[in-house]
Amino acid sequence: FQAEDGIRDVAVTGVQTCALPIFSIGVLQDQGKLPELAEGESLEQAWQCQDSGGEHLFTVSRVVVSSQRGMEVQFAQRTRTGKSWKKDWQARDFFPLDATLRHAPRNQVVLADVDRDGELEAYIAYILPSLRNNVDEGKLLVFHKGRKYAIRGVIPRGPDDFGSRQINAAFLSLPPTVQARALALWDQLAPLAAVQPVGTRAR
């Protein structure tokens, strides 16, 4: 976990800007700071931050969906209210089971107050590997003041491949500094796609 401003814990991965130290899941669990999870939900990443809105907990978790032969990845933000956590927002995506077993979804989460308004934005960039063709689908979510903005497109795997991205009008309403940070993260997805080439379907 590369902290831009804050304390680094070697067991955590991602990038953030936070006022509070960043702890691994084990540390947060020992401190009693983890939320209750739904049945079948497993927590993979958790980190704690504070801004003008209070103390927050950001989590990445997964749920196996046996009936659909897949896995749901969930990103969420919670705010402390007394001794409990209130969920502010949640984003979900579905990965086919064969894709997630052979090609674990790679994601990068950035928590930063880029526009300096006192509130953290959440940037979530990840790739959905394809098993049937030579392109991967990329997604980048931005949560700004509790509202979700998205970029979607094709991620090239090599220097000779072409990529694309789709940006809607709502994204263009974000502060210019937030847009620039999101687009910079999008550009970092292409090298991630080349790290683990997609092979044959698992049998």
Protein architecture, described:
This protein is mainly beta. 14% of the residues lie in helices and 45% in strands. It contains four helices and eleven strands. The strands form two sheets. It has a seven-stranded mixed sheet with strand order 1-2-7-8-9-10-11. Strands 3-4-5-6 form a four-stranded antiparallel sheet. A hairpin with an 8-residue loop joins strand 7 (107-112) and strand 8 (121-128). Mean pLDDT is 75; it is low at 1-16 and 195-203.
Count all strands and give the number: 11
Biggest sheet architecture: 7 strands, mixed
β-strand percent reads 35-45%
Shape: globular
What is the number of helical segments per DSSP (H or I, 4+ residues)? 4
State the share of residues found in helices, binned by percent.
Answer: 10-25%
Rounded to an integer in angstroms, the radius of gyration calculated over CA atoms is 17 Å
N-to-C terminal Cα separation, in Å?
A: 34 Å
Q: Strand arrangement, largest sheet?
A: 1-2-7-8-9-10-11
Structural class: mainly beta
SSE order, as H and E?
A: EEHEEEEHEEEEEHH
Low-confidence stretches: 1-16, 195-203
Could you report the average pLDDT, rounded to the nearest whole number?
75
